[in-house]
Amino acid sequence: MIDDLPGCLRARHPVEEDHSRVLAVLDAWWGGLKGEAGSVERALLLPRLYFQHFTTTSFVVERDDGGIAAFLVGFMSQAEPEAAYVHFAGVDPALHGQGVGRALYRSFFALARSHGRRSVHCVTSPENTASRAFHTRLGFTASPVMRDYDGPGLDRVAFAVDLAADPRTTAQAVGHGHDSWARPGCCLVQPGDTASS
Question: What does pTM read for this prediction?
Answer without folding.
Answer: 0.83
